[in-house]
């Protein structure tokens, strides 16, 4: 299995800034989902990206986004549109899944996640969830998840309802990463820490998915995930950093 579907996210003023700073800005065009998409594409994984803002994303020419139909502003260390006008994704019809594996975060909202997760489970497929932002989490989501990739704070919130037979790849930041399954625990520490944490967790996700697709042993997957996150911390950017680390891995 070398194919998967990836669910994009939405921009949330409250999540990043603590208050709603603009009435016309809400939906994000990709978030972690898009970063993971670019990373896996760099690893030659065939992925279909289900974006939150419609059929005109992903945008190919990332240098001319301002002034186009959907893009509003660009992060100072990126060349990608980060947001679209409020309501841009309200009428986007869920697209058919093309694989037997779905990766999602909760940036898309709990309702959207459930829509896609149920579609995947109905066809007998597998669902991998990065439960961020955790305020979207509901206990009922657990039955639709086959693998979870939380960070430490998210794990503390949801760990009591995770069955022991569901694998967990835990992102522990500067402390590395861990794997839990059926009472087994594997821990991997980092060796160096860069100054750019943006995108490190997304790189971790990329490596976990790559390991699962290639039938790596859990200890190999955790080691690769921590390595990807660590290397990303030395590169400015988010999706561009994740993509570079992935490309370097194949060299």
Automatic annotation (TrEMBL):
Entry keyword set: Kinase, Transferase
InterPro entries in the record: PfkB_dom, Ribokinase-like
PANTHER family per UniProt: RIBOKINASE (PTHR10584:SF166), SUGAR KINASE (PTHR10584)
Chain ranges of the Carbohydrate kinase PfkB domain: 21-230
Keyword presence, Transferase: yes
GO molecular function: kinase activity
Protein's name in the database: Sugar/nucleoside kinase (Ribokinase family)
